[in-house]
Design brief:
Layout lengths: L3 H29 L7 H126 L2 H9 L13
Length: 189
């Protein structure tokens, strides 16, 4: 017991309870005509029961106290973790804002570059059209040149044959002529 005052009040209560049992026993005897005895042993049993209940209640209170203490420790730990998380959140918020600004700038730059790319694509489409037109013209010219080459090829072959047919004697005779003879047509094979 924590104080003498509490001890005295408990002792007075025990005595009052024992005397009250005697008074109620007398009322019971008059009503039912049966005797109930209270002895010093019953008084001692009352004290023993009180001690048992006191020990049990103290154990329960101590258990609740331990749970309360653990709960407070956990609350303080949670409060510390929340404070750390708030600091981390504030730091990460700054990083997120920075990244957001960088992303916005990048998006703006990409938008500008896409506009430039679209302009370049338009220019490239015009140039491609011009190139395809030139390519068509070049293809037609090449075709014409191949036709002209094919038409000139038999004449070149004849000239080569005639050139191969020249001898030294014919060249000497040709030099001796003052005016060349008229051209005679050669029969076509």
């Amino acid at each position: 017991m924590e104080s003498d005052e509490i001890k005295a009040q408990i002792a007075n209560h025990m005595a009052f309870a024992h005397e009250s049992v005697g008074t109620v026993a007398e009322i019971y005897r008059q009503a039912e005509r049966r005797e109930v005895y209270t002895t010093p042993k019953s008084f001692l049993e009352l004290i023993a029961l009180y001690k048992i209940q006191l020990a049990k209640n103290r154990g329960d209170i101590e258990q609740l106290r331990g749970r309360l203490k653990e709960g407070l420790i956990k609350l303080h730990d949670a409060q510390d973790q929340v404070a750390e998380m708030q600091v981390t959140l504030a730091e990460e918020t700054i990083v997120v804002e920075t990244k957001k600004k960088e992303t916005d700038e990048l998006l703006e730059r990409v938008g500008q570059e896409s506009i430039v790319a679209e302009e370049q694509a338009e220019i490239a489409a015009v140039e491609e059209e011009k190139v395809s037109k030139v390519q068509t013209e070049v293809g037609a010219f090449q075709e014409q040149c191949l036709k002209d080459l094919a038409a000139a090829e038999p004449a070149i072959i004849k000239a080569m044959a005639a050139l191969n047919g020249l001898t030294k004697g014919a060249l000497t005779e040709l030099k001796s002529l003052a005016t060349p003879p008229p051209v005679t047509p050669t029969p076509n094979p």
